[in-house]
Design brief:
- This protein is mainly β.
- The chain has a domain at 268-350.
- The chain is 4% helix and 48% strand.
- The protein is built from two helices and 35 strands.
- The strands form six sheets. Strands 1, 3, 4, 5, 8, 25, 26, 27, 34 and 35 form a ten-stranded mixed beta sheet that branches. Strands 2, 9, 10, 15, 16, 21, 22, 23 and 24 form a nine-stranded mixed beta sheet that branches.
- Strand 25 and strand 26 (366-372) form a beta hairpin.
- The longest helix has 10 residues, at 444-453.
- The protein is globular.
Length: 470
């Protein structure tokens, strides 16, 4: 049965983009013969590694003149608000993106990474907050993760290609123009589409006698320019940085949240957690606890009470306040968990480790890829096709976990008709030429894709087509 909700369906290649102000640099140290360190101050919240990081197939593909349906796939989450245990409310979105698809005779092919589900929160998230997100319609609690700052040396950035650093992509919009635009202007986006255009990745120095760059605080997307070439429209960065996440831990249950007294035990479906002792040491107060699983050996953990006006984003610090034992996890309240002889904790159950580019939940052909923001917070989780796919007219492609369906209705030359649905509801029949590239839903990634495709005003673009049929 067709969904008859009234709404807006848009097929376009443009929308208003975001912009950051440009800052003129003073003399740089790029010509120095000394080794240039990544332009960060000590101490960093995340470890620094060299290289490109994990690569997502089809990462540099952008949807080709896609249909945008901001209502999303029928039945999927759009703007659902969730309040974590810190009292912070974050809207959540479930997005579907199809890109790189092509008509190939009597079928349509989609390359690896060309169709993905994206759980996209409206802002960054970290553990120790009781945060949850929805993946394929099921709620999971964010327990912990491992992020990195990745540095590429001698990284070229030009106007025709995307350069990957971590899970971030850079492309040159405009090379430096002496006395006009002294800094190169870059486009930036994540693998799932979150983007700011332009992004102020540039060489800015507080003092030419110092090595540290005077960069915008709280961002690790930074670069040190070696040289620029106006003729080839390219810039060579001595160092160019990004962030990436190697793995995350999510739980399908929150078994307990609150205060527990010394000597008290909490029984969960995965076993028993007992607070053995709370004591003071020269380094602060320590919480000793024992996790006794239903099967296997009991283990004892010593966790450190932490008092801070902000959350301990340092992974070293999180290791002191989070204990993951198989399917169980115990997390201390990060802003002073101990009060007298009581400790405030979370206990999570059915905890699983989600590795980057590994199968999601055992789903064959669908892998997981977490998205890190410029300061390495989690801002999305993609579940993408790990192998190329092919559809013939009348065939339906089951989306991850059969959470939705992509149906190819017909092919007439280069003209393609298709629809997307779930929960016995379908989008209107959609018609495109040459492919079925499309974007369903709202959220940061969708707006980033719009900005990446074009920066023209949507209401002034004569190519916009609107259909009031939902």
């Amino acid at each position: 049965m067709k969904n008859t909700r009234t709404g807006l369906l848009i097929a376009t290649a443009g929308i208003l983009s975001l912009a950051l102000p440009l800052v003129s640099p003073v003399q740089s140290l790029a010509s120095s013969e000394e080794a240039v360190r990544p332009p960060f101050h000590d101490t960093l919240m995340y470890p620094v590694t060299s290289g490109k990081g994990s690569v997502l197939p089809g990462a540099t593909l952008v949807p080709d003149q896609p249909i945008f349906d901001f209502h999303g796939v029928p039945g999927w989450i759009q703007g659902k608000k969730y309040t974590n245990d810190m009292g912070v409310t974050i809207p959540k979105y479930e997005i579907l993106v199809v890109k790189g698809s092509r008509v190939n005779g009597d079928s349509v092919t989609i390359p690896a990474g060309g169709v993905y589900f994206d759980a996209s929160p409206a802002r960054g998230e970290i553990p120790m907050t009781g945060s949850a997100d929805d993946f394929l319609g099921k709620k999971y609690y964010f327990v912990d993760y491992r992020a990195h700052i990745i540095v590429r040396k001698n990284a070229p950035v030009d106007t025709k290609h995307w350069t990957a650093v971590g899970n971030h992509l850079y492309r040159l919009l405009s090379p430096p123009v002496p006395k006009v635009i002294p800094n190169p202007v870059l486009a930036w986006r994540t693998y799932d589409g979150v983007s700011i255009r332009p992004w102020a990745v540039t060489q800015r120095w507080q003092d030419a006698r110092h090595q540290w760059a005077d960069q915008t605080p709280m961002t690790y997307l930074q670069g040190v320019i070696a040289k620029s070439d106006k003729k080839s429209h390219s810039v060579l960065y001595r160092t160019l940085t990004g962030t990436a996440i190697s793995k995350e831990w999510w739980a399908s249950r929150k078994d307990f949240f609150g205060e527990v007294s010394k000597g008290q035990s909490i029984r969960t479906p995965d076993g028993i957690v007992k607070i053995e002792d709370i004591r003071s040491t020269p380094k602060g107060r320590t919480v000793s606890l024992t996790v006794r699983p239903r099967k296997g050996m009991a283990r004892r953990y010593n966790l450190q009470d932490f008092r801070s006006p902000s959350l301990p984003e340092s992974q070293t610090m999180r290791r002191r306040i989070i204990a993951i034992d198989g399917p169980s996890a115990v997390v201390l309240w990060p802003k002073g968990s101990v009060s007298g002889r009581k400790v405030k904790i979370w206990i999570y159950g059915d905890v699983r480790e989600w590795k980057t580019n590994a199968s999601f939940g055992g789903l064959k052909g669908w892998n997981y890829f977490p998205i890190a923001c410029p300061i390495a917070h989690h801002i999305g989780g993609m579940i993408y096709n790990s192998h190329s796919l092919s559809l013939r007219p009348g065939e339906s492609l089951p989306l991850p976990g059969r959470y939705g369906w992509l149906k190819l209705v017909s092919i007439q030359g280069q003209k393609v008709q298709f629809e997307v649905g779930s929960h016995h509801q379908w989008t209107p029949l959609m018609t495109k030429s040459g492919n079925l590239d499309s974007v369903f839903g709202e959220g940061r990634a969708v707006h980033g894709i719009l900005g990446t495709i074009d920066s023209t005003r949507l209401d002034l673009d004569r190519s916009v087509t609107t259909l009031q049929n939902r």
